[in-house]
Amino acid sequence: MGKSLRKIKRGRETIAFPARKNGKVADQVMQAWNKGFAAGAKQQMKQDTEIMMEWLGRLEEIEGIGPKMAWKIREHFLDFMREKRERDER
Asked: Nearest 5°: phi and psi at 29?
């Protein structure tokens, strides 16, 4: 989750809206907000992944990067992502 998303997520708890007086309505509003937030975050992650995969697939187009260096960059990126996922799962 990016810095901006964390700020938004933290800030949503302090949003002032009239439904806050009615606990049930406030809960429903927050559930709807959370559902929309999660859907948006999921969509953003999908788009980010597609862009990164496209970029990794086109590394050889950069002047000075041949197939061997492109392979090393891709391998390093995938290792980094694997390690990050393992850290996050702990």
From this structure: -65, -45
